[in-house]
Amino acid sequence: GQTIGILGGGQLGRMLAVAASRLGLHVHVYEPGAGCPAAEVATRTFTAAYDDTAALTEFAQSVDVVTYEFENIPTAALDVIEALRPIRPGRRALATSQDRLTEKAFLRDLGLATAPFANVESAEDMAAAVDEIGAPAILKTRRMGYDGKGQARLKTTDDAADALAAMNGAPAILEGFVVFSHEVSVIGARGLDGAVACFDPGENVHEDGILRTTTVPARLTASQRTDAVLLAARILTALDYVGVLGVELFVTETGLIVNEIAPRVHNSGHWTQNGCQIDQFEQHIRAVAGWPLGDGSRHSDVVMENLIGADMDRVPEIAKSGAALHLYGKAEVKPGRKMGHVNRIVQGS
Length: 349
Ligand code: ATP
Ligand code: MG
Ligand code: MG
Known about the structure:
EC 6.3.4.18, 11 helices, ATP-binding, purine biosynthesis, ligase, nine-stranded antiparallel beta sheet, D-amino Acid Aminotransferase, Chain A, domain 1, ATP binding, alpha+beta
């Protein structure tokens, strides 16, 4: 059978590997860190750095197609792989989403609503950005940020200097603070044949910058739900995308505003494992393997809760409750570390 290569061996890589294995596919994982969550599930694991050209070459030659569980893969590593095997989703999606400025400009040029934003690479840029956008606002590093890391909030324009200092010289964007009632996300998929399928939008609650829960169905009107799905489809098509993509949205009085996109399976899509016949992980593997997309319609109402750090103490009690537990097999519990999640079916439909 086919062999799928996955860059990154964290929990997303692990759950992708499980899905691929269920489809009878082999999985080779490439991950610099030893003892990663995906290694236990993979057929073969390459433990090597992203600048190890020989290891990258051997990895690429050992698989039929390469996908990834995170978007911050160094460009040089992608160049080595792309010369040998297809990368899905493609380079365009990666280049767009690796940099918040490129991403926001792409979304704006598609005609989608975003927070007002401005590029900040110097004190002069910052002054101009604050003039234009005002406060409250959020300064975010353009690259590498996740779980709210690399962000500084400006309550008033007086916070500008401190916020800029917190970037440590890294290029950033200043975003106007969006007043929203709640946050939702759409997990969309596009096949090699161009077919698009979206999962039902989920409603997300964050705590300390980290996703805490996703609830489906989200509180959305019928037209908001349609809008969310259509805008995700537009993003997928514009990027000539193959695979699963997460789109984070703010729900406001003036409509849906796109916060960010992630060119991969997404934490806010974990509910699909127990709420749909075909979950986001199988959908992604189907797409990158060139299979037809599956039926991702939602059959149950679900609340997904992340198990973060010391939440692991509650696992015996959760296990007794009979809810669907998904643990990532991480040896060490750390504060803020995603250790697993639980999907509770609230109501079958
Ligand atoms: P992730 O782990 O989702 O990749 P991240 O580090 O990329 O997170 P964002 O999604 O940009 O960070 O921001 C984290 C959270 O901060 C958002 O989910 C939202 O609650 C809040 N937030 C971000 N940008 C804005 C904004 N412009 N206005 C209001 N709230 C915002
Ligand atoms: Mg992000
Ligand atoms: Mg986010």
